[in-house]
Amino acid sequence: MIVEILKVYVTVVEQSNFSRAAELLNLSQPSVSQHIRNLENEFGVKLMHRSPHHVKTTEAGDILYKRAKQILSTYEAAKEEIHLLRDEVTGSLKIGASFTIGEYILPHLLAEFVLQYPHVDIQAKIANTDEIAQAVRANELGIGLVEGNVEYRDILITPPFMEDEMVLVAPRNHPLSLQKMIEPGVLQDQVWVFRENGSGTRAFSDQFIGELGLCIKRSFIFNSNQGVKEAVVAGLGLALLSRWVIRTELESGELCSISVKGQRFARYFSILLDPKSSDTMAVKMFIQKLRQFKM
């Protein structure tokens, strides 16, 4: 079926690599290459420039990619409508989530969702907030779940679905760990542990430090919540992390939470939608489940 061939083509373009595309599609690399050659023979043009490590589309390839995405979207919509005649929710769901949501909330949410809708094919990606937003913009993801602010006009941003409590944490042997409440000025010239730029957690930390006009003595940067958490446990410095991330360590006493006078640490989790796929039944049911979800 031409739909399957177009799926192969779109996957190769999005992965920029034949081997990764073959792995995702559970096909052999020669089979993927043959599908691309068949398409080039059918259209009579070269669709891709190939190198050992990279694939780049030609002008004709760009046109086919754009139209192939439209065809696949139309096909999925038709399949959903037909299955709805039998009261089934089907189709595919490509979900992206920032690290806090993806590591601590999404697995539990998906476990409930697939139990109710077993015929929906789900792919999940975890990255920082900025990477998820970019993937939604590029039509690589149908839905993104992120923390922090996202400012793009070409994607839909729905009202927040959950409030997230942020916690200022310190190692248990840190001088501030013995104090229940501190004045903001005490945080001057401290050592901090941060997430990387593009992370919602990093954006929240930067905003807090900027609003209080804090000077940083030294900082360490990690590209995962786990890395930040372990660095604080090891005694490297202070950090602002979601309570989801450090619940176990707070209960065990490995980390200590610190309250700052006059400060409330909270942010919101938001839903980003690709306008082209936001009206599919799978997306609608997922959002409904998301807004009802409790842990």
From TrEMBL:
Write the record's keywords in alphabetical order, separated by commas. DNA-binding, Transcription, Transcription regulation
Coiled coil region boundaries:
none
Q: Which Gene3D superfamilies match?
A: 3.40.190.290, Winged helix-like DNA-binding domain superfamily/Winged helix DNA-binding domain
Q: What is this protein's record name?
A: LysR family transcriptional regulator
What species was this sequence derived from? Paenibacillus spongiae
Q: State a single Pfam family of this protein.
A: LysR_substrate
Family classification: Belongs to the LysR transcriptional regulatory family.
Superkingdom to which the source organism belongs: Bacteria
Q: Which CDD domains match?
A: PBP2_CysL_like
Q: Does the keyword DNA-binding apply?
A: yes
- Using the record's annotation, list all stretches that form the HTH lysR-type domain: 1-58
Instruction: Please name the InterPro entries in this protein's record.
Output: LysR_HTH_N, LysR_subst-bd, WH-like_DNA-bd_sf, WH_DNA-bd_sf
